[in-house]
Amino acid sequence: MADWTEKYRPTTLSEVRGNDKARDALRKWAETWDDHREAAIVHGSPGVGKTSAAHALASDMGWPVMELNASDSRTADDIKRFAGRASQNQTLGGTGGRQLLVVDEADNFHGNSDYGGSREVTRIVKEANQPMVLIANEFYDMSNSLRNACREIEFRDVSRRSIVPVLRDICRQEGIEYEDDALDKIARETSGDLRSAVNDLQALAERNERLTVDDVVMGERDRTEGIFDFLDDVIKNKSAEEALYASYDVDETPDDLLNWVEDNVPKDYRGDELADAYGFLANADRWLGRVRATQDYSFWRYATDNVAAGVAASRRHDHGGWTRYGPPSYWSKLGRSKATRNRRDAIARKIAEKGGFSMGTARREVMPFLAEMTHHCKPRELTVRMTMVYDLDAAEVSFVTGSGEDTNKVQGIVEEAQERRDDAVVENAGGAFAQFESDEEGSTADDEPATEGEAAADDDGDDGQTTLGGAADDPGEPSPADTDSETDETDDGQSGLDDWL
Ligand SMILES: Nc1ncnc2c1ncn2[C@@H]1O[C@H](COP(=O)(O)OP(=O)(O)OP(=O)(O)O)[C@@H](O)[C@H]1O
What we know:
It holds the Pfam family RCF1-5-like_lid. Residues 433-501 are annotated as: Disordered. This protein has 501 residues and is mainly alpha-helical. It is 56% helix and 5% strand. The chain has 4 domains: 4-154, P-loop containing nucleotide triphosphate hydrolases (Rossmann fold, 3-Layer(aba) Sandwich); 160-215, Helicase, Ruva Protein, domain 3, CATH 1.10.8; 227-331; 337-501, no CATH class. A 5-stranded parallel beta sheet has the order 2-3-4-1-5, sandwiched between helices. Strands 6-7 form a two-stranded parallel sheet.
């Protein structure tokens, strides 16, 4: 299915919702540009429509857009070239020579090495003979002189009242039935970020024929009441068998159950019981891998056996009192739709291969770190390196960082990573010794653990059957998931990060 944030991107300013004041200011700025010739800084949180507004404005005005992307490196020279190109283009076309220069991520010029870049932007902003919009998340990350040279236009977080009608329109156009409360809840959950709201709506619509308020989970506590009772049952109160029965009443997929239990069990279990519990969770993960590989959902129950009965059976001590259980940290990204899961797993596979640990470890222990550390592609350098090391494409970078796949930011990062990878290949072609040297320097994770992974895959089928009650049938030929599911939960999930930190 097409990405709805693209499909429903505003094409004219009047479709930009929830920021009427900023929108009007932008329009006025453009219409009077000949008089003031100032550049504009459009700033605000991610996903509130800044980029869309700039492009919609250009289209309303009939101005072609010329963009300085995050992908263009941003030294003083690059910016001069950009400005030069822009003034050349001025003589082309029949648009009265006007075009809109859009500089994305204008708050990112401020880093040390780019300082020249920042100064150059300021100079160009002052001298530009074309309307120019600088887009930024953080107004105050920009230099004083740059800020002073521009007109400030602030985009605020989009209110719930403005988000709901956007979601409603989309539902109508897509022919999706919905409860009003469900849309309201999505709007509340995504607090001001319209892009996230649209993304969440799409994920939910892929999974449900009719959107009800109960479908909207997104880490909110009230709907998951049942899960907290279930955690108490498994971790504290119930026998293995009772815990298994309790699991039948919880309205969560086995993938989600696994994540909940895995994140919360270490709050109570210690030592051997924790190790045993992890063993069962590792088994569960293998069964879920088989489900994904074979689409045979009958394996689900073996996963649930392990998660519920297995973890309850591992308990050796009383765990009284009250524990603050919480949703898995990576919750909002986990298993929301099949497409999301597939993407998540594709990334986990790359990380697992590179770092030499299991898919499960990659997914649960490495990816959350990456997501945290490169949130909204910041810091950019780290994001580029991650992209390079794990060979991620734009969709994958977008998944990990939470930035839009088609944004210049993400596209630029992917391009830069590709360039650097190409350069690295050329450097490495320098001779056999170059390779040795770089190995010695510590990128050791590559080869040896892969063999471990294969070895583990061999006896994987057997391990998987240590479900309670021996209910498991051998699922047959090793599926692709088997190679993934070497699950040494003691892996230090972070070791794979060494390469790019
Ligand atoms: N104000 C809005 N009105 C209508 N749609 C919006 C609005 N804001 C965001 N969207 C939706 O979210 C998508 C992403 O918005 P956009 O890229 O313009 O946000 P942004 O503020 O530039 O975010 P970022 O800083 O992360 O690039 C749009 O394609 C559109 O589907």
